[in-house]
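Project standup — Tuesday

K.O.: blocked on the structure for the chain from last sprint. Re-posting the sequence here as requested.
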Amino acid sequence: MSFPANLKYTKDHEWVLLEGNVATIGITAFAQGELGDIVYIDISSKGKALAAEEVFGTVEAVKTVSDLYMPVSGTITEVNPALDAQPELVNSDPYGQGWMVKVTVDNATDVAKLMDAAAYEALVS
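H.V.: unblocked you, prediction finished:
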């Protein structure tokens, strides 16, 4: 399993791609593998300002339901519309088409505090 080096990671298995002050957030390949077949994603927090580690939604898989945690403080500006019809994109392309939300980050230094790919790989292996 590979973890893209251009992303940052959380202990809760979310990834973050920071571009300017906008962070794209999703769950890692490890997380989707542990969850199994994803059948529904509930993110109703668009427009909300949330603190780091607050729940911003849930992922429902055949086996379980799991909370999604904000890796950084910010305001959710966009929810991936493709996931309504195709939640399985998180399984097939977790770092691409399976992204979950875009967030305007309150403080970009929050992202710097997250794990790099090597640290995340050490956590999950």
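K.O.: great, moving the ticket to review. Strands lie at 8-9, 14-19, 22-27, 38-42, 49-50, 55-61, 65-69, 74-79, 101-105. The domain at 8-106 is CATH 2.40.50.100 (OB fold (Dihydrolipoamide Acetyltransferase, E2P)).
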